[in-house]
Amino acid sequence: MSTLRDLRTEELTYVSGGYCGWGNSYRQPSWGGCFSINNTRIGAQIGATAGYVAGVFNFAVDALSGASNGILTSDLKDIGNFIKIGAQYGAQNGINGALSLYQNVLSAINTSLQSPTVLGITFPPPSASQS
User: Fold this and answer.
1) Which of 14-18, 65-69, 116-120 is predicted with the least confidence, judged by mean pLDDT?
2) How far is it, in rounded angstroms, from Cα 113 to Cα 115?
3) Could you check whether the bond before residue 124 is cis, i.e. omega within 30 degrees of 0?
4) What are the E-state strand segments in the chain?
5) CA end-to-end span of the chain
6) Measured distance CA(38)–CA(86) in Å, rounded
7) Is there a contact between 85 and 122 (Cβ–Cβ < 8 Å)?
8) Helices in 32-68 by DSSP H: which ranges?
């Protein structure tokens, strides 16, 4: 029966997939590549989140104001549409563009909440195209 031992550095490197650019060593990991940020994918995820937040806010505003079932159903459909629009916007404009969109959504929500009559917001907010 063999005993357990600590792995040597070379063995740890092999089982972990290799170095990924740290220090003076670089070896392509066996799992296909170093971690990298995919600007398009992450931008799309952030943009979709911005759309989701905008859609849920609009639904909540209408639900709390006693809107009809037809309006609430439309709001629910809008959530899906806003997610798609936000994902497309984020994919086209990358992480920075998507973050700007998200900040504009939060700003529009904040402005709406501070007004005497809380209303839903447009998506994307007008300021998103100006950023």
Assistant:
1) 14-18
2) 6
3) yes
4) none
5) 67
6) 17
7) no
8) 39-64
Spatial separation of the C-alpha atoms in residues 103 and 53, rounded to whole Å: 11
Count the Cβ atoms, other than its own, within 10 Å of residue 24: 5
| 128: pLDDT strictly greater than 90 | no
Note the pTM of the prediction, 2 decimals. Answer: 0.70
What is d(CA 7, CA 25) in angstroms, rounded to the nearest whole number? 19
pLDDT in tens, 29-77: 444 555 556 788 889 999 999 999 999 999 999 999 999 999 999 999 9
Tokens encoding 119: 């209303």
Mean pLDDT of the chain: 82
Q: Mean pLDDT, to the nearest integer, of 101-121?
A: 93
Rounded to whole angstroms, how far apart are CA atoms 2 and 98? 55
